[in-house]
User: Which sequence fits this backbone?
C-alpha cells in the first residue's frame, strides 16, 4: 500500500486559517489502512479544526467526507453536488488523491493533510517499511523476492557493497543489508547458484529518472 | 461503602476502555467538557488483553492534539484501577476535579457561550 503519515496540525491550520469553509476529505484505501487519512482521522482532524476556529471566534464550516478512493474519477464525482459549499479542501489521501481531487475541481484550493511516504508494508502495528520503489521493471524473480532497488541504500544489483557488516547496512544498524537477505533466501530456497549470475545493466528509463511515467494498456482502453 | 465523589463527574460507560477512541475524547471537548479521564482496569488485568493499553495510547494522542490546538493536554488523563477499588476511584475523581479547576474552563465552552450571548447580526451584516 501507499504509506502516509499524519501532518502536524499546526501545518494544516496554517494552510486553512483564512478560509470560511473547508471540507476534510478522507480516502477509504491505503491511508485508511495506515491510519493517516481514513474516516476516523477525518473526524479527529475536523473536530480539532472546529475547536481551533471556535477559540479564534471564527465561524468556519468544517465538513467531513470520506470517499472510496480519491484516485478514481468515478468516486471523485460523488463530490460534485456538495463541493460548492466549501471554499477549500484538505485531502487526507496520498499525494495521488490530493492532486487528482485538485485536477477534478480546479476552482477549489486543495491542501494536503498527510505526508505521503512510500509503497510499503506493515511490519507490526504502527510500523511500516518500504518495499517497492515502482522502478517499472521488476527484478524480484532473480533476487529471491527481496528488492535491492527499494531495500539497498545504493540500489546495487550484483551483491553487497563493502559497507555490509553482520547482515546490516552501513547507513544504520537498524537497516538490514538487502543483499544479505537475498543470499539468505537463495540459500533457504536451494538456489544459491543464482547468486553467481550477473545482472545485466538495468534499464532505468522506466524508473523516475525517465520523468513522469504513464502506463497505457491498449487492451483496456475504450 | 457509600463514598462520595465530586458531582461534576459524569460517567459514560463503555464495555472496555479499548473502545474509547481519540474522537470520543475530542467530541467531549467540542461539546464543552472541561476535562475527560478514562478509567480502565489495572495494566495487565484487561479482560481483552490490551484494551487499557490501547486506551492509554489514545489518551496520549488526545493530550498532544489538545496541547497543539491550545486547549491543554492536562485536561485528559488515563487512570487504572481494580473494579473493586472504590477509594481509588474517588481519589481519581477528586484529583481530576482539582486538575480541571486549576486549568480553568474549556476555552471551547467559553467560546460557545459567548457566541450564544452575542446579539443576532443586523440586517446590514447579513447582507455584507
Assistant:
Amino acid at each position: 500500500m501507499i504509506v502516509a503519515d499524519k501532518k502536524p496540525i499546526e501545518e494544516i491550520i496554517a494552510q486553512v486559517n483564512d478560509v470560511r469553509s473547508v471540507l476534510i476529505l478522507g480516502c477509504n484505501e491505503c491511508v485508511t489502512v495506515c491510519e493517516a487519512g481514513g474516516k476516523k482521522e477525518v473526524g479527529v482532524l475536523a473536530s480539532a479544526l472546529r475547536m481551533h476556529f471556535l477559540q479564534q471566534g471564527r465561524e468556519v464550516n468544517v465538513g467531513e467526507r470520506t470517499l472510496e478512493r480519491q484516485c478514481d474519477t468515478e468516486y471523485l464525482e460523488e463530490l460534485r453536488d456538495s463541493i460548492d459549499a466549501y471554499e477549500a479542501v484538505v485531502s487526507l489521501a496520498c499525494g495521488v488523491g490530493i492532486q487528482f481531487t485538485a485536477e477534478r475541481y480546479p476552482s477549489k484550493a486543495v491542501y494536503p493533510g498527510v505526508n505521503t511516504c512510500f509503497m510499503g508494508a506493515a511490519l507490526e502495528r504502527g510500523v511500516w517499511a518500504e518495499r517497492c520503489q515502482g522502478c517499472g521493471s521488476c527484478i524480484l524473480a532473480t533476487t529471491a523476492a527481496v528488492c535491492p532497488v527499494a531495500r539497498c541504500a545504493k540500489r546495487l544489483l550484483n551483491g553487497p557493497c563493502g559497507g555490509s557488516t553482520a547482515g546490516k547496512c552501513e547507513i544504520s544498524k537498524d537497516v538490514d543489508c538487502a543483499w544479505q537477505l537475498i543470499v539468505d533466501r537463495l540459500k533457504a530456497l536451494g538456489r544459491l547458484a543464482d547468486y553467481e549470475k550477473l545482472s545485466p545493466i538495468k534499464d532505468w528509463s522506466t524508473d523516475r529518472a525517465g520523468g513522469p511515467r504513464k502506463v497505457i494498456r491498449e487492451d483496456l482502453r475504450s | 461503602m457509600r463514598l462520595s465523589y465530586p458531582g461534576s463527574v459524569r460517567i459514560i460507560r463503555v464495555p472496555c476502555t479499548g473502545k474509547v477512541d481519540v474522537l470520543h475524547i475530542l467530541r467531549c471537548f467540542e461539546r464543552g467538557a472541561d476535562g475527560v479521564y478514562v478509567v480502565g482496569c489495572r495494566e495487565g488485568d484487561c479482560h481483552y488483553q490490551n484494551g487499557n493499553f490501547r486506551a492509554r495510547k489514545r489518551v496520549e494522542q488526545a493530550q498532544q492534539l489538545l496541547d497543539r490546538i491550545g486547549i491543554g493536554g492536562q485536561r485528559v488523563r488515563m487512570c487504572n484501577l481494580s473494579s473493586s477499588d472504590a477509594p481509588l476511584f474517588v481519589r481519581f475523581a477528586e484529583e481530576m476535579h482539582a486538575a480541571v479547576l486549576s486549568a480553568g474552563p474549556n476555552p471551547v465552552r467559553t467560546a460557545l457561550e459567548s457566541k450564544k450571548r452575542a446579539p443576532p447580526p443586523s440586517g446590514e451584516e447579513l447582507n455584507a
